[in-house]
Amino acid sequence: AELLADHRHAPARPAQHAGVMVANKYSETELSRAIEHGQMILHYQPQVRMADGEPSGMECLVRWRHPEEGLVYPERFVSLVEDYGLIDALTDRVILLATEQLRSWRQQGIKLPLAINLSMDTLQNPTVVERLQELVEASGLTASDIVWEVTESRIMRDLTATLTALSRLHLKKFAISIDDFGVGHSSLAQLRDLPFAELKIDRSFVHGAYADQVHGAIVEASARMAASLGMICVAEGVESPEDWAFVRKAGCTHAQGWAIARPLPSAAISSWLERWPVDFQALNHAARTRA
Ligand code: C2E
Ligand code: MG
Ligand code: MG
Ligand code: MG
Predict the structure, then answer these.
(1) Count of CB atoms within 10 A of residue 229's CB?
(2) ipTM surpasses 0.95
(3) How far apart are CA 134 and CA 129, in angstroms?
(4) Whole-model pTM?
(5) How far does the centroid of ligand 4 lie from the alpha carbon of residue 170, in Å?
(6) Mapped to the 3 state alphabet, what secondary structure does the chain carry?
(7) Distance of CA 31 to the CA centre of its chain
(8) Is there an atom of ligand 1 within 6 Å of 243 CB?
(9) d(CA 125, CA 165)
């Protein structure tokens, strides 16, 4: 159970000194050391095809194993890492860990592609495409093993550079997923111009959409648009049988979320794969009886 737990909802540790609750600001030195010294680790969250439950991939999600604070989640440090200009170092580290893990899974016969998060900031670097390709190839993997999930976390300084990098990644046969669809600055115009393979609807729209007319309409419209553009549509944040039933009916082809699996340490993935077919039946059954 310890292995499977996502501790985010455990009682929060006071951010800093007793009394004054300040936003926890980590220093540049602290973060750069953490990246250098191997304190960043990955958890993996399965994605499945809704029609038959077939596992379709895994997303790797970074966590900081902080020497005093325990596991720190990316919402507390990724944008700081961007502010400090350390995002390339973090991305390289994540790719290294992810590709090593994927290679070891391949040896065990687990063939799922891996989704890696990229902040758009990274894509403004003129040498980024070569670097990403090198990192993947150095690990003995190919473009078809990887899906890049891109999120627009801030207004982009150089839209052209970013769009060029995305097109070039596509030419190199990498799949690109537009992450957090509906909440970023990603516009419909970019969807039209770019060869995205996948659209991921942000979990803030997905969870509870069955009981919220506006969110429900957004999920349905996004799924329809993805389908007519020939894109895979992943619903993230599927937490309950009700969510599962709703996004399936709305036309999402794939799903990710706690109802399927929490983000898991790599060691827990093979037992999830064994258990999932049974859980899938149970989830479908619960969705039919409750929806
Ligand atoms: P994201 O890429 O949209 O990832 C999905 C987030 O939703 C993850 O949070 C995941 O744990 C959480 N999640 C998944 N299923 C459910 C669910 O059913 N319910 C709820 N409430 N949450 C769910 P996490 O791991 O905290 O990551 C947050 C964000 O941090 C990610 O959002 C991504 O934008 C960023 N991130 C994570 N890893 C990396 C990384 O290696 N590099 C970069 N640049 N960003 C990363
Ligand atoms: Mg993502
Ligand atoms: Mg997302
Ligand atoms: Mg999200």
Answers:
(1) 13
(2) yes
(3) 9
(4) 0.91
(5) 22
(6) CCCCCCHHHCCCCCCCCCCCCCCCCCCHHHHHHHHHCCCEEEEEEEEEECCCCCEEEEEEEEEEEECCCEEECHHHCHHHHHHCCCHHHHHHHHHHHHHHHHHHHHHCCCCCCEEEEEEHHHHHCCCHHHHHHHHHHHCCCCHHHEEEEEECCCCCCCHHHHHHHHHHHHHCCCEEEEEEECCCCCCHHHHHHCCCCEEEECHHHHCCHHHCHHHHHHHHHHHHHHHHCCCEEEECCCCCHHHHHHHHHHCCCEECCCCCCCCECHHHHHHHHHHHHHHHHHHHHHHHHHC
(7) 21
(8) no
(9) 9
Strand partners, 48: 55, 255
User: Mean pLDDT for each 10-residue chunk of the chain (291 residues)?
Assistant: 47 44 78 98 98 98 97 95 94 97 96 94 89 95 95 70 90 93 68 83 94 95 93 97 97 98 98 98 95 66
CA distance 102 to 138: 13
How far the first Cα of the chain sits from its last, in Å, is: 29
Place of tokens 């994927």: 102
Ligand sitting nearest the alpha carbon of 183: 4
**Ligand 1 midpoint to CA 23 (Å):** 20
